[in-house]
Amino acid sequence: MCGIFCLIQENDIEQDLLKVFKKFQQNIENRGPDSSNCKVYTWGTHKICFAVSVLWLQGNNLTEQPLEDHSSAFIYNGDIFQGLENNLETGCGDSKLLFKLIKKCIPSDIKEMRKIQGPYAFVFHKRHANQIYFGRDVYGRRSLLVGKSQKNNSLILCSVARRNTEFDFIEVPAIGVFCLDLVTKSIKVFPWSYESRDVENRLKNLELFLNTKIHVEQQVEVINYPLEQENETLALLKSLQYSNSLFEMLLHDKMWLENVKHLGTLLQTAIQRRIETQPKFCKHCIVTKNYCVHATTGVLFSGGVDCAVLSLLCNELVEFRRPIDLINVSFDEANNFQSPDRLTGLETLEELKKCCPNRIWNFVEVNVDKQVLNKERNMHIADLVYPLNTVLDDSLGCALWFASRGISENYTSPCRVLLVGMGADELFGGYTKHRVAFKRNSWQGLKKCLEEDWSNLPYRNLGRDDRVVSDHGRQLRTPYLDENVVQFVRNLMCWEKTFPSEALSQGKGEKILLRTLAYYLGLKNTAFFKKRALQFGSRIANPKENAHEVSPRLIGVTPAK
């Protein structure tokens, strides 16, 4: 994981570029504590500043950036888990191999990049063509912002920015690889062809921001997911919806059990790639390379079914000499921090202990009082959330920042990898609006709602969450957004993953496939816990506020009492 920064200016001196970078330097360097570099290149009439901070997670040795040769330069933030030749088998880091692939396939064979699995964002300077290529992976799991100067034609591409500078910023849409021609000032995009999305609509905000038309280089192929046609599984669910032993009965069905087992296998493989792909040292021991038995992996842990399944599957993959950190955040100062998520987390912790009696679980109670919350938000978190600015962005951004900091009264988590359950609700239909959509328009309405949520996922929260969590020099990893997991779940019929029938109380029908997996794995109580959004479960949000309005706390205005 890295913080990447690229500043492009015309007819300027090197010191001016470095002055601009210094405004963003601390936020960039927070993301990568293991190495940082800054270089300024002159190419024609342009000067280009490439700056990178690196969190070493892949390969036997740290790979410093920028990577460069006589024809190109490259900066990259991400994790490639499949699709690069031999990177996991030989101990070679993904940075050099991705640089090699991009040099080969840009611009003539960009489709080769579609074979890559894992989150990433990159900037690539093809020097002799005087072109800058940049983009995010198809799910938008890593942040990439583009900034435009209010004073001149300078542009910035970076992982994280700041408010109140001469630059305005917008998130780069996760629709493909962009190409900026530094001579003609034209921009084109090579879309990811295997995702069904309206590319031109996604480009509108960026075109307005940059005040230029972006040419779509090729047409987008549309994947048609299966139509919702009733089958035996739906009949089974209807027959069992009044049963007091729903999950037990479902597990007696051969087809349902096969899907549960297959989902468990895919998730375990996804988790294995995400926790084994890191050095065997915690944040403290990575400096000295001394023998380390501390936690290197943590889970952002509300006690809900999403994170509980991740935690239990982790148990089989993390060596037993190491604890696993379960990080639970609460802002409920009035009730001695006994928020709903704190109580649920403690309940699920007891169930994990019964399932895994030999595992050491560090339950990290992160308690945040209002004074500390306001101070950190005003000084720092608002910059990480930027350019997003709603009440929801405020609540979730702050909750994730404090949780991923991992500091309790007696313990600070030393892990360098954090697993989170992001994407589970969008895939398995966990939101209340999914239940509403089903009630109003049956399966077609639910299917449409799920598709909209999935297509909006990169634009609503993933970039923000990457900026917030990575600020602590930890890597955010999302097993539910593993390509193989996503492909399997999105090819299921709606009722094969969620069944929000009015006959079933909350905590049963929604995310029914994932809940059955939890039950199958031994989480007999957790499988029935109701979905609770982080902002409400941690007690950071004010339920009287409109989540989609601009937050006065993020734009420096004190809200009215």
Task: Walk me through the structure.
The two termini are 41 Å apart. It is built from 17 helices and 18 strands. The protein has two domains: 215 residues, Aminohydrolase, N-terminal nucleophile (Ntn) domain (Glutamine Phosphoribosylpyrophosphate, subunit 1, domain 1, 4-Layer Sandwich), CATH 3.60.20.10; 306 residues, HUPs (Rossmann fold). The chain has a seven-stranded mixed beta sheet with strand order 4-5-6-7-11-12-13, sandwiched between helices. It has a six-stranded antiparallel beta sheet with strand order 2-3-1-9-8-10, sandwiched between helices. A five-stranded parallel beta sheet has the order 16-15-14-17-18. The longest helix is centred in the C-terminal third of the chain and has 39 residues. Strand 6 and strand 7 form a beta hairpin. With 561 residues, it is an alpha/beta fold.
